[in-house]
Amino acid sequence: MRLRIPGGRSPVDPRQRGQAPLSHDADLGDAELDDTALARLYAYPADSGTAPGAWVRANMVASLDGAAVVDGQSAGLSSPGDRRVFWALRALADVIVVGAGTARAEGYHPTRTKEPWASLGLRTGRPAAPPLALVSQSLELDPATPLIADAPDDARTIIITCESSPAGRRAALARAADVIVAGEHSVDLAAAFAGLADRGLRHVLCEGGPRLLTDIVAGGLLDELCLTVSPLLAGVGPVRILAGALFPAHRLRLAHLLEEDGVLFARYHSIPA
Ligand SMILES: NC(=O)c1ccc[n+]([C@@H]2O[C@H](COP(=O)([O-])OP(=O)(O)OC[C@H]3O[C@@H](n4cnc5c(N)ncnc54)[C@H](OP(=O)(O)O)[C@@H]3O)[C@@H](O)[C@H]2O)c1
After folding, report:
1. Are 212 and 58 contacting, i.e. CB atoms less than 8 angstroms apart?
2. CA 132 / ligand 1 centre spacing (Å)
3. Which residues pair with 61 in a beta bridge?
4. pTM for this predicted structure
5. CA 92 / ligand 1 centre spacing (Å)
6. How far does residue 102's CA lie from ligand 1's centre (Å)?
7. Both ends of the chain: CA-CA distance in Å?
8. Is the C-beta atom of 102 inside 6 A of ligand 1?
9. What architecture is the 49-270 domain classified under in CATH?
10. For ligand 1, atom 3, which residue shows the shortest CA distance?
């Protein structure tokens, strides 16, 4: 994996917004990126983003024609490089936020930190792996599922829901998971991210899916998008990385572009409206 376009060439320099540069990659040249360099390229910024106290990063994969799934899952779009970035981003995060639809479709389990990322010290002072936070209104989630029941005590699964969710299901889930109630009829994501930040979970990694990511973008809460572009055409039909409500066009700037075997790994930062 090599750095093809380093940071700093974007039209908006983060220093103009009073932030430190987000990556220090000018010295990487065209060398094969080792694990330390890769982790450094994806380091979270020191400052918080749009949501109070939090930096919200999304990580998604798409085909050249914009599909977010092949045969109903994102695995068909993935690659060794995509999995390397995926696990690095997980190791860097304080919490992984995911929509219930993705947790069901992709068979989510409690996270772990794979090597080499654990040995790099990315988790020092934090649980061995970040907790998962599931966003759901229906709460059609089984408290006995490994995703909830097998989570370690120091990284219990978090359920993010709203007042209108079924009270009985919420009470049952609260026995096995931490519950954040944010919003009345649907989840108020700004309040949810504030609730995570109150727990010290400021570096958010959202792994989708399309409906949740749409709500985050529409709410003006996306600080960063890490997008893997896989060199294949999936054809007409599959869902894109966004699905649901319309919102005004949201602009981002390129922070860096990596490449491996024709697969592109772009890191974009939101440009404040
Ligand atoms: N290419 C990629 O990078 C990528 C990444 C992730 C997922 N995917 C794919 O995307 C598909 C799933 O799409 P999806 O749009 O259904 O995924 P999703 O956003 O993960 O799930 C939607 C569900 O999440 C809950 N939810 C999301 N936002 C909410 C909000 N603001 N308030 C309350 N609840 C909210 C609701 O759950 P309840 O129904 O429980 O209320 C909703 O039905 C799968 O095929 C998956 O493989 C692709």
Report:
1. no
2. 14
3. 228
4. 0.93
5. 23
6. 5
7. 33
8. yes
9. 3-Layer(aba) Sandwich (3.40)
10. 60
Q: Is the CB of 106 under 6 A from ligand 1?
A: yes
C-alpha to C-alpha distance for 117 and 205, rounded to whole angstroms: 16
Q: Is 7 helix (H, G, I), strand (E, B) or coil?
A: coil
Query: 118-142, pLDDT tens digit by residue?
Result: 999 999 999 999 999 999 999 999 9
What confidence score (pLDDT) does residue 216 get? 97
7-16, 23-32, 182-191, 208-217: segment of lowest average pLDDT: 7-16
List the chain domain ranges. Answer: 49-270
- Please tell me if the CB atom of residue 212 comes closer than 6 angstroms to any atom of ligand 1: yes
pLDDT of 39 = 96
What is the CB neighbour count within 10 angstroms for residue 167? 10
Class of residue 246 by CB neighbours under 10 A (exposed 0-12, middle 13-18, buried 19+) = exposed
Find where tokens 């065209």 sit.
30
* Ligand 1, atom 17: closest residue by C-alpha: 209
| CA 137 to ligand 1: nearest atom | 41
Sign of the torsion formed by the C-alpha atoms of 272, 82, 47 and 103: positive
* CA–CA gap between residue 140 and residue 142 (Å, rounded): 7
For ligand 1, whether the C-beta of 107 sits within 6 Å is no
Indicate the top mutation candidate among 61, 212, 213, 265 to test ligand 1's pocket, ranked by most ligand atoms within 8 A of CB. Answer: 212
